[in-house]
Automatic annotation (TrEMBL):
Gene3D superfamilies: Aspartate Aminotransferase, domain 1, Type I PLP-dependent aspartate aminotransferase-like (Major domain). InterPro entries: Aminotransferase_I/II_large, AspAT/PAT-like, NHTrfase_class1_PyrdxlP-BS, PyrdxlP-dep_Trfase, PyrdxlP-dep_Trfase_major, PyrdxlP-dep_Trfase_small. It catalyses: L-aspartate + 2-oxoglutarate = oxaloacetate + L-glutamate. Keywords: Aminotransferase, Pyridoxal phosphate, Transferase. It comes from Neotabrizicola shimadae. Pfam families: Aminotran_1_2. This is Aminotransferase.
């Protein structure tokens, strides 16, 4: 009898975490490595949020809480959805998890049966398909190409829906591409979903506040109220509030779904960290004035990276609407070789050679469901980004 579960054969470790770990190992060995793999802001958590956590500790708020979140935080989440998205929820419709990933995982675990299909636009966040498979479902990627700015069309969505479709996972702005759907683009998708009442919508809004230029963020249930009763709208404090390590995500949707997700959480992690919940409460209810300056800094970094990568031989880098990622295309480099003789036959070999020969760590595109590409996280300083892009330029120029 095998010791390990057959479930493990359906999933793989996170490639983004693997790249970050490899970069850290090389740094520890003394290599000059620039890690552009992690989706983590380099800003510190705002002081008022840290102070709120300290107060929670001093006041003894270090015990178990309700499984899916303290009442105060749930009320703050309701207020956030109403204030920023025009969505009305009660506390009974809100769940708080250990990061946005757990909220998504709980929803899939609570709803998927063998044979259920989940439509996932590709390029996708690496964890979506694996979480679907862990929950017993079948991921159905729908590829959005560079020519369509990495956004799927209504026609593609319509064609992917079958009687077995249970969920449509929507992520805008996107990890890994930064692509954001405009109001008109999203309305076309929601019109399709209105024609298929058996399909639920899982909207991952984690990068809501990281949008640039004149782009305006919108979420599906905001665009089409008719989808409200079959939409789980998820978000968190990790990215916008520089709280990745605090591990707080949240979601809001129909009461029956939220209760089912609570059952999953009650038998897995139980409540999120109590101190982190009070920190998240301050994040959502305290001053928001740092969001705009941070957004401006990220926009400048985006412009720097897009400009420099488009000057690299054989690379095409589109200009995304949000998040803190770019997803360059390397079609012009396939078939070329490094001076050491490594032939670039795919994006994984490109990323491996780039790390070994220049010390720049990126994530290869196949991990996100679209090749030949790679993802750069520009959540680091201008100086580091400029050096990394200069190394990429030199690497590409030396290919023969």
């Amino acid at each position: 009898m095998p010791f390990l579960s057959d479930t493990l054969a359906r999933v793989k470790p996170s490639p983004t975490i693997a790249v970050t770990t490899k970069a850290a190992q090389l740094k520890a060995e003394g290599r000059d490595v620039i890690g552009l793999g992690a989706g983590e802001p380099d800003f510190d958590t705002p002081q008022n949020i840290k102070d709120a956590a300290k107060r929670a500790i001093d006041e003894g708020k270090t015990k178990y809480t309700a499984v899916d979140g303290i009442p105060e935080l749930k009320q703050a989440i309701c207020a956030k959805f109403l204030r920023e998205n025009g969505l009305t929820y009660t506390a009974a419709q809100v769940t708080v998890g250990t990061g946005g990933k757990q909220v998504l995982y709980n929803a899939l675990m609570a709803t998927l049966n063998p044979g259920d299909e989940v439509i996932i636009p590709a390029p996708y966040w690496v964890s979506y398909p694996d979480m679907v498979m862990l929950a017993g479902g079948t991921p159905v990627p729908v590829v959005a190409t560079l020519e369509n700015a990495f956004k799927i069309t209504a026609e593609q969505l319509e064609a992917a829906i079958t009687p077995k479709t249970k969920w449509f996972i929507f992520n805008s702005p996107s990890n890994p591409t930064g692509a954001g759907y405009s109001r008109d683009e999203l309305k076309k998708l929601t019109d399709v979903l209105m024609r298929h009442p058996h399909v639920w919508i899982l909207s991952d809004d984690m990068y809501e506040h990281l949008v640039f230029d004149d782009f305006r963020f919108v979420t599906p249930a905001e665009i089409e109220p008719g989808l409200y009763d079959r939409t789980l709208t998820t978000n968190g404090v990790s990215k916008s509030y520089a709280m990745t390590g605090w591990r707080i995500g949240y979601g809001a949707g129909p009461v029956a779904l939220i209760k089912a997700m609570g059952t999953i959480q009650s038998q897995s992690t139980s409540n999120p960290c109590s101190v982190s919940q009070y920190a998240a409460l301050e994040a959502l209810t305290g001053p928001q004035d740092f969001l705009a300056p941070n957004r401006k800094l990220f926009q400048a970094r985006r412009d720097l990276v897009v400009s420099m990568l488009n000057q690299a031989k054989g690379i095409t880098c589109p200009r995304p609407e949000g998040a803190f990622y770019v997803y360059p295309d390397i079609s012009g480099l396939i078939g070329k070789a490094t001076p050491k003789g490594t032939v670039i036959t795919n994006d994984e070999i490109f990323a491996t050679a780039l790390l070994e020969e220049t010390g720049v760590a990126v994530v290869f595109g196949a991990a996100f469901g679209l090749s030949p590409n790679f993802r750069v996280s520009y959540a680091t300083s201008d100086a580091v980004l400029a050096e990394a892009c200069a190394r990429i330029q030199r690497f590409c120029a030396e290919l023969i």
